[in-house]
Amino acid sequence: MKSAITISLTPQARSGPFVFHDGLADGCRAASQLGFDAVEIFPPAANAIDEAELQGLLDRHALKVAAIGTGAGWVIHKWSLTSADAAVRQRARDFIRAIIDVAASFDAPAIIGSMQGKVEGDVTREQALAWLAEGLEELGDYAASHGQPLLYEFLNRYETNLFNRVAPTVDFLHHLKTRGVQVLADLFHMNIEEADLAAALSVGRGWIGHVHFADSNRQAIGSGHTQIEPIIAALREICYEGYLSAEIFPLPDALTAARQTIESFRRCLATK
Ligand code: LER
Ligand code: MN
Questions:
Q1: Residue 105 C-alpha to ligand 1 middle, in angstroms?
Q2: What's the whole-model pTM score?
Q3: Ligand 1 pocket by Cβ (under 6 Å)
Q4: Which residue ranges form the domains of the chain, and what is each CATH number?
Q5: Per the CB 3.0–4.6 Å rule, which of 127, 155, 189, 260 could disulfide with 220?
Q6: CA-CA-CA-CA torsion for 89, 95, 98, 103, nearest 10 degrees?
């Protein structure tokens, strides 16, 4: 497993669960000094990433891009794949496709979290799931044509009512035609929704493509009450080799949260 830490470039997400908020250069420098393998980026849009600048920083600091989030499409514009408005669904797909393009040029996947939307108003659950499936079919195949998976993240009940746990998520993805979509398991959401995080991850065998490494209080692992050892054992057991990426609040400050994350990561991986 590999370590990653989040950098948000989105001012509207300043109070969100991202460690670094002061630009790519600052975030990459800190990530590399602490020994992270990669950074996960939360841009306001695809074209906000200066590709030459990012490539220079990755080269200088020996970092990779773990993933690029699309959530700003929801935070800034309120676009989602399950909006009742067809034009909004189209804007959501275009926004995500552009992020798949830029992520793929850094050999990284894009994440669909908040942009999945939720069942609301007059829209039935059946209809919302049909729109979600339509979006994931198109975007999953598009990501696959770039040699990348598309990461679909189930969220806790306060953020979506579409999918909140591993098992129903895997069941839904299993019924899609595209094989381009993998599951993002965020340990913070799972702490709210799953009875047993390790058992739930085992159900995700073969499907888990990315992990958000967060304690029960959405702070660095070691700050809350999540028992991380059985989770790491379950991830090993399903042969998960992807990132443990810290999507957490910068508390008490960004550097302390980042340092505690890398120390926890090393301790986790040192255990047998
Ligand atoms: C996105 O990765 C996520 O976990 C959501 O809670 C939106 O912040
Ligand atoms: Mn997450």
A1: 23
A2: 0.98
A3: 16-17, 71, 113-114, 153, 155, 159, 186, 212, 247
A4: 2-270 (3.20.20.150)
A5: 260
A6: -110
